[in-house]
User: What shape does this take?
Amino acid sequence: MKFTDKFFFYAAGAMAVLTVLAAKLGAPAVAVFVIAAIALLPLARLVGESTEELSAHTNAAMGGFLNVAFGNAPELIIGLFALHAGLLTLVRASIAGAIMSNLLLVLGSALLVGGMRHKRQTFNKTAALAGSTTLMLAVVALIMPAVFSHTSLGITAGTLNNINDLVAVFLLMVYVSYLWFMLRTHTHLYTEEGSAYLPRWSKMKSVLVLCGATLVMMGVSDVLVQALQPTLASLGWTQLFVGVVIVAIVGNAAEYASALMMARRNKMDLALQIATGSATQITMFVAPVLVIASLLFGQHLSLIFNTFELVAIVASVIITLIVVQDGESNWLEGLQLLVAYAVMVMTFFFYR
Assistant: This one.
């Protein structure tokens, strides 16, 4: 086992134990929140490493899907616990923030880091546009109920709830179709040619590390959510800001680490798939599942975002479509995505 592998194994274990101890010993909520957030970083690295090993045993499409699926576990767990606590505004904001951070922060960082090491990077334009178009269609499904609620006269809460639930079902249907496209009928679009990477881990070890890291990540996410409400009160931040920025960044730690790793190794198809695929899964899978799960908690999570959130989501998707349409990238495009994300974060911080 390489030194870096051992380091992240030990770091992940140590930080997970420290997180539990801080929570059990009654440390300040802000400290517990920060420790739990830091603990997610080495776990994210292990998820990324084990996913790459699995992709070497299978193919890039399956590897990217596994990374997206396991990488989004924190968002789903955080969302479920926040629903149980009645923090509907925070849950909805975290969905919007996850889309923004994946498309602007994660992808932007990957393009910047990869572009600094490789002057020009290319990727499959057809696959990139297919993923981005699917995401754009999902965003349309989010926009229409919001526009309807603001423009329709005499709308009742029951009608809005019915529309919200139907949208969630439609999004799940489209997501299943997207998976069929990616993993069955058009797998070749998501598989890089000429890859010389040979796996260092066995398939069994890769699966065990991936599952183990994900389970520990879920436990750490649980502690993080428990410290969320008192942290919110202590710092005076709004649910909107914490959901859009803090929770989204923490939840996307796995995608962030993995996309950077792929970009540095000039595997831009996989890096792009991780970023856009995660945003797609958030929109078409995590959000609808949270809507359905909210009913079990006696809540009714609405996917009707406010105007500010909608503009941020649509702008993020449009910028991504513009960047990927030529099938190549450079460091400047990555920097531009990061600047766009910084502007959005600043405005959400002051938004009341």
